[in-house]
Structure formats: structure tokens, C-alpha cells
Amino acid sequence: MIATSVILGAGGIALAWALIQFLIVAKIPVRSAEGTGESAGLVSGGSDSESTTRRLVEIYEAIYEGAESFLRAEYTICAYFIIVFGLVVFGLVSWGTHSMARGLFTALSFVLGAVTSIVSGYLGMKVAVYSNVRTTVSAQKPGFTHCFNTAFRAGAVMGFALCGLGIIMLYVSMLCFRVYYPNPEDWIYLTECLTGYGLGGSSIAMFGRVGGGIYTKAADVGADLVGKVVHGIPEDDPRNPATIADNVGDNVGDVAGMGSDLFGSFAESTCAALVIGSSIGVSGGWDSMVFPVVVSAVGVIVCLLCSFLATDIFTVKQEKDVEMALKVQLISTTAVMIPAIYGAAIWFLPSEFALKATVGEGQYLLHPWEAWLCVVMGAVGGLIIGLVTEYYTSHSYKPVREVANSCKTGAATNMIYGIALGYKSAIIPVIVLALVVYGSFKMCDMYGVALAAIGFLTNLATGLSIDVYGPVCDNAGGIAEMAELDPSVREKTDALDAAGNTTAAIGKGFAIGSAALVSLALFGAFVTRVRHSSGDEVFADGVNMLEPITFAFLIVGGMIPFAFAAMTMKSVGLAAMEMVLEVQRQFDEKPHLLDANPTERPDYDACIAISTNASLKEMVPPGAMVMLTPLLTGIFFGVTAVSGLLVGSLVASVQLAISMSNSGGAWDNAKKYIEKASPDSELKGKGSDIHKAAVVGDTVGDPFKDTSGPALNIVMKLMAVLSLVFADTFYTINGGGGFFGMS
């Protein structure tokens, strides 16, 4: 059982490495330095240093308590959902498969996936909040090495812990189910039971992404509109009542929500590949069938080795090194992954292995190099999409600078340019996705598409490390501002955050591309499962898109992402309006808050309560729509209607997710580009009318890039994996025709 040793060993190493990184970060004391050697001193005198330290601890505790209370409330709701929906999964799957065992195993997988997703998100929040203040303290030291390494290691804790936990939980579940299904011919049932794991992870990701996204953007928009636009006070100014809620939001949305999202992608892509490739186990054995999990295990080791490039070999010494260090991580892991995966394919796959075709009666006779090439296509395609995303969202390049220049004539032209940029930025990624889908499908049928989806996520540990790095630096800057440290500290954290924004945009490109391929692979697994359940009576010749019911629901599926985006955008707007009124109320009732050195503090808790209550209330309707639509479609209209629904949702979600995420990222970095300009330049710099127009664009872009856009990844994945889990149930109703008999 070499595969078992490799998979569990890699998972254990990932968890151990995460612990080591956490212990390194934990050694940094939360104590303000008296000087950095770069200036006369960040704080003057011992007593001032002690008071600043107390202020740092006070801010850290406020952010921690806010994030903790929100996640506790959110996960309490999720716990009730897990219990209720777990019973639904057990009942419907047992009825559809005529097997209590399969219903029970699927329900257990669902619960395990959901709990793992919650643990991943909660762990990420804990580590991020714990590391934020330590990054601020490290930024007081000379150079960029200490603060960069602190933030990067904080991200690594999340990245490697999530990957290690996900791999171990998934594979241990497989080993347990194998006791009940020892024969290779029955492994198809084992993999079908395992699909509940992906459903559980994706369900919690939906609530985490939407709830966290509404929380963080309500606070961010409220703080920006009243603080920066109306009163002209800096971002994260301690006088702004919404600033603590804004920093809490970075942790619950950008860290906890994103961690659950990418865990869901890992679980779903692996489950899809296992279902489609279950027939490989008959001819090639267990090690061959679990090759998709081996790929993820090898990816973790490669990411671990490449992490030394940033922290120990090519250390960050100055500002210009930061962005390069992060980009080198993504490029180096992709480059090293290519030979590493080739070795795994040669070692674990037989020289020839048979795969049942998704469409038709034939079989594919495949070779290890073909499976390897599919993974490589996904990995390289993801990197290309990421770099294209960077081009359209970084102010180092022409598109964002055009958006910045459009602010000279006001907010309206800024909005027009930003929206146009988002639409245009979808062209190349969609073409790349199309090429990857065509090439991988021609080579290894739908199994190749599933492997390409896993290829997108081979460097998941590194991608997560970089994604968490950004919010940690953002929070570190906010803490420096609120603690009134020397401006040089904020400048340093802003430089780290700016690079994090660019690489985070690259990460979002990876996430969207992988979500598209994962969704397509899950759709292929859905077709495979319905064929198997029907004895090749349904979908034997594929899905006929010209069937009236299929085409009708294709159009309905294309509408779902727009309805979802509308619901989440409006939710942010409603919560932001309430936040704006609260912040303005405090300024009106306590006008001395706007003094240069106010004698009283704002009521931060009131703003935290607004974000918490709004997000918990507003996250339910969008999630319910996404989950109930395929379920009710399959029950009432049948499997052909579901197939049209999934394809329509996939096609529309990809375009909308790319355009919304990139428009938001471009508006954000256009604002930062203007802020870097001097007052006597064409862009006039901070505080100018041009800057205010850019802030309006950035404010509109916040829910684009941090709420609706990223959550669309989950829309296409969750609808597909839910359909896969309940495929047998749908087929049981009138032979797949639904209650209305529309097949």
C-alpha cells in the first residue's frame, strides 16, 4: 500500500510543517519597539512604549473577540444546517439507491466534509488574528525581512494545515468505506458515497463566503463612505467607528471564508476524479484509483520545499522584492510540480489502464503520461490565467492606469472604465479554459478534465499561504494606524499589502479557473452516475442539448448566477447603508471624535453588531436558492433538466466571476495608484477630487471582488456536487423523468 503511505505521510508532514510555522510566529512578543534604527524612534520613551503596547493588545483583543463572536454565531447556524441536511442526505440517498448503507456513508461523508470545512475556516481566522499584531510588531524592525516572513508564515499555517487535514480526512474515510466495499467492482459505490464529503465542504463554504463577504464589505463600504469620502480621515483611523469591524471582516471573509472555499474545491475535484475513474481500480488496483489523491499529496511536498525560496534563500530585503517573492512561489511550485507529478504517474499508474468512456459504450486504453499531461495542462493553464488576472488588476500595467486616469473626469467614467475592464479581462482566461477542457477531454475523456481541475489546485498550499498573507498585512496596517505608530510602519505594511493584493488577484484567477473545471468534472461524474444507475439507459449517448427540457433549463441555469449576484450585492448595500447611518450618527452625537486628538473613543461594538446581524440574516436566502434549485429541478423535472441547469450555471458563472473579481481588483489598485501620486502630479494624490472618485469606484468594487465574485465559484461547484450526490434519487423518480415525467 505505497499510495497509503505517501498520502498519509504527506498529510502528516503538512500538519507538522503548519505547527512549526505557527511556533515560529508565536515566538514574536506583542511588544512595541522603542526604535527601528531607521528613524528617531517609533515611540519615544519607555512609558509611551508601554502605553503603545497596551494599545496594540487592546486592538488585537477587540479584533479577535469580534471575529470569534461572528464565527461562533455563524457556525452555530451551520451546525443546525449540518444536522438537518445530513438527515435529508441520508433519507434521499437511501431511498434513491435502495441501500441504507450507502445513505449512511454518504451522510457521514457530508458531516465530515462540513466539519472539516468549519475547522479549516476557524483555524484560519485564529491564526490570522494571532499573526496580525505580530506582523505589526515585526514591521517596527529594520528592513522588510521580519515582517514579510511573519505574514508569509501565518499564511503557511493555514495553507498547509488545511491541505494536510483535507487529505487525511478524505483518505481515512476512503479506507473506512473500503472495509465495507472490499471488491474493486464495488469501489464505484465507495466513491459515490464519498461525494458527500465534497457536498459538506462546499455547503459550509457557501455560508462562509457569503456571510463573511457581507460582513467585511458592509464594514468596509461604511467606513470608506463616511470616513474617507465625507470627512476625509485616513483608512483605519481609530476615530472611525467602523474600523474595528472592517478589520474583523478581513479575517472572517478573506481568511475563514476563502479557506472553506478552497477546501471545497479540493474535496470536489478529488471526488469527481474518483467517481469518474473508479473503473481504473478494477484493472489497475487501489493505488491506481487513488492517483488523484496522490497528486494532491505530492503537491503539498513541492509547496513545502518551494516555501524556503521566500523565507530563507531569496529573502525579502526591500519593497521591490516583496511582489517578486510571492510570484516566484507560484511560478516555482508550478515548474517543480511538472516533473514531480510525472514521477508519481509513472510510479502509481500501470503502464496501460482501462477507463470506461463517459459517452458511448467503448473504453479508453490510457497510459501514465496522458494522465500526467492532463494534470500539467491544468497547472500551467491556472498559472496563465493567474498572470493574465495580474495584468488586468495590477497598477504596474496599462489597464489599471487607464482606470486611474479616468477618475480625472469623475466617478462615472471610473465606473465605466472599470466595468469594461472586467468584461475584457474574461476573454483570455475563457479561451485558456476552453483549450484545457478540449485537450484534457480528448486525451483522457472526462477523467482528464477532473485531473486538469486537480492540476489547478496542485499548489493549493502555496496559493492559500499567499491568499492569507494579504489580509494579515492589511490588518497589520490597520493595527499600526489605530495604535498611532510611526507612519513608516504603516508605509511598510501597505507595501506588503499592495503586493498581496496583486498576488491575491492571481490566486482568484486560479480559484475561478479551478472552479470551472471542477464544476465540469462534477457534471461528468453526474452523467456517469446516472448512466451506472440506469444500466446505460439514460445518457448512454451523452446529453442532448437540443432536447426541449434540457435547453429550457440551460437558460434557467444561466440566470442563477445573476440572481445570486443581485441578492448578495443588495445584501451588502443594505448592511452598508445601516453602517453608514450608524457611523454618521456617532460623528453627529460626538463631534469631538473628528478632532486630531480626540478624548473619547467611538462605539466600535455597535458597528460590529450591525455587520454580524446583517451577514447572518442575509447569507441564508442566496445559499438556499443555490442548494434548492438543482434539488427541486431533479425531483420535479428529472435528470435531463438538471443537466441543462448545470451547464447554463457553469457558463454564466465563469464569465461573471472573472469580470466582477477583476473589475473590483482594478478599482482597488487604481485607488492605490492615485494615492501614491504626489499632490502636484496629474493625479493629485490623496484627498483630491480624483482620489474621491477612485474611492467611490473602490467602494463599489468591494462587493464585486470580495463578496459576489468569489462566491460565484461556489455557486457552480455546489449545484454540481449536490446534483451528483442526489443523482440516484433523481433517477428513481419516474426513471429520471421527475414527478412531472419530463424526460
TrEMBL record:
Compartment list: Endomembrane system
Name the membrane topology term.
Multi-pass membrane protein
Q: Which GO terms describe its molecular function?
A: diphosphate hydrolysis-driven proton transmembrane transporter activity; inorganic diphosphate phosphatase activity
Q: Which InterPro entries match?
A: PPase-energised_H-pump
Q: What is its main location?
A: membrane
Record field: transmembrane: 6-26, 77-97, 103-124, 156-181, 187-207, 262-283, 289-310, 330-349, 369-393, 414-441, 447-466, 510-528, 548-569, 635-658, 714-733
Protein name in UniProt: H(+)-exporting diphosphatase
